[in-house]
Amino acid sequence: MTNPYVDPDTKTWPDLAIGLFEKLTGRGAEIAYDFENLRVHVPSRTGKDAEHAQWTLNGRVVIRTREIGAPKA
Question: What residues does each domain of the chain span?
Answer without folding.
Answer: 29-67
